[in-house]
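Subgroup meeting minutes
Present: P.N., E.W., G.H.
Scribe: E.W.

1. P.N. recapped why we're keeping a running log of single-chain structure predictions: easier to compare across weeks, and new members can see raw inputs and outputs side by side.
2. G.H. added today's entry (127 aa).
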Amino acid sequence: MSKLGPLDTYWHHTFAWVGHPECEQRGPDENLLIDRRCDVELIGGVVDENAGYEYDEFALVQIDGVFYLLQTIGCSCPSPSETWHVRHKGTIADIRAAIISGEYDGYTLPGRKRDEFLALIDKAAEA
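Output recorded in log:
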């Protein structure tokens, strides 16, 4: 787990799109994560490396004791920093249920990546 840090270190992070202000679907949750980016704790995420030119990435973050499931989806244009949004928020159990239900947009997580993400969520629940 790590804090995200300011935008000047933005591109040095695996999930650099998390909390980026170019987000095109800004709602109250996205604004909170943008405005308090330095307070956001990145727990982890998954990327489908076999996706080709498209991307479908998930990240799990926490701020003020609330967990957020973030997703960014698209193809080679626009960038992930422009398409990220909060998919679900709540407890670890809420996030886990959302992933298991498969109720999210995008190309869907391949089974191996879904299992990897669920293991990450379970580890966070134990912490």
